[in-house]
Amino acid sequence: MKRVFFLLSAIAIVYCLTMVTSCSKDNEKDLTSTGTDTTGTGGGTTCDTVNMKYAANVQPIISANCYSCHGNGSASGGISLDTYAKVLTQVNNGNLIGTITHASGYPAMPQGGSKLSDCNINIIKDWIARGAQNN
Q1: Closest CA to 88 of 119, 134, 126
Q2: How far is the first Cα of the chain from the last one, in angstroms, to the nearest whole number?
């Protein structure tokens, strides 16, 4: 009888531990969330760089990292990035990718700051690869 009780207790403990550790999501939102960061802001565990859009994905990166010198009336080095048309000019002449990737022959941007995250660079690259549309 002791043996049966011990065996049943062990099975119950294993079952309870399995249930507790296997359900790490607390609500439906967490269950459907993929943990993907589609904005490049670091909110998720991975970086989604598929089908990036200017208004939703690229412009926030440029605003957060470039506007202090190249936006809101500032045009450091004669370059302003405060409109889609002005960003597109830098895309078309190759300067945007050259500067944010710190490529040889281009000034490293943001100046005096660290390079953009690989995620943010890949978001911008995807947007450019898809035609750099104003969407």
Answers
A1: 134
A2: 72
At position 46, the amino acid (one-letter code) is T
Taking CB atoms within 8 Å and a gap of at least 24, the contacts of 86-92 are: 87/54, 87/58, 87/59, 87/62, 88/132, 88/134, 91/128, 91/132, 92/132
The token pair that represents 120 in the structure block = 């943010």
How do residues 70-88 score in pLDDT, each as one tens digit? 998 889 999 999 999 999 9
Residue 89 has pLDDT above 60, yes or no: yes
How many Å apart are CA 115 and CA 19, to the nearest integer?
Answer: 43
CB-based contact 110:120 (threshold 8 Å):
no
Which pLDDT value is given to residue 33? 36
